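Async update (no meeting this week)

Hi team, since we skipped the sync, here's where things stand on the single-chain job. The sequence we agreed to prioritize is pasted below, unchanged from the tracker. I ran it this morning and attached the output directly underneath so nobody has to dig for it. Comments welcome in thread, and please keep replies under the output.
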Amino acid sequence: MSTDFPRAEVCLWTDDVDRAYAELVAKGAQPLSSPHDFLGRLRAAWVADPDGNPVEIVAEHVPEPSS
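Output:
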């Protein structure tokens, strides 16, 4: 992977960040950041494309209903 800054970042919206991340890593994508919640309303993870550029996988976070 290059030590230069990436020239671009691809952002892919999905319904299930955890599943998409697991599938990409299982198929050989380099993990950069595992799935996590942030900004109170998003869930995201990052992997690297074959050239080392970051690919963000993101979904709107739907909190579990309180019981």
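Quick observations from my side:
The chain is about 15% helix and 40% strand.
The first strand starts at residue 10 and ends at 13.
Reply here if anything looks off.
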